[in-house]
Specification:
The chain is mainly alpha-helical. Helices cover about 55% and strands about 5% of the residues. The chain has a two-stranded antiparallel sheet with strand order 1-2.
Length: about 170
Amino acid sequence: MSFEITLILTPSFVKSNTSIHSNVDDNLIVPLIRDCQNLFVEPILGSGLFDEIISEVKAGSISALNTTLIDEYLIDVICNWVLARYIRQGSYKVTNKGTVNMSGDNATISSKSELIETAQIYLDNAEEYAQRTTLYLMENETDYPLYQTPPDGCDIIKPRRDNYETGFIL
């Protein structure tokens, strides 16, 4: 049985546009991109718009509006979330002996606190870009009917319009 995963961004694109080194195996990046799409991007867009974008990417024919959404917003969201997750997961490998800490011959492994602090920078960036994406979609709702009026169903994820926090306490 073969399953095809449609990714909005390729592993090589993510590596070219983040600090993830080009020699990192694509097989380590693909699950991170998939998870970031499904866990973070789909709730921003809602199932209707997300499924439309995935279908267009799969078909190789992306509408002008969705190209703008991807190029101007989703690239930054996905790249930052993938990078934050890779920082946390890239130093460890799950083997038949358990979880092990990976280290290179001429490299110094960062401390756990350094990894968490660095990952947090990219998580903060991802959340800021997610906020910008939400605001863009709210401002342009009429151009994105599947965002404005998502389909019905118990398995449909409605767009989250509050996917960010502000510094204001009400």
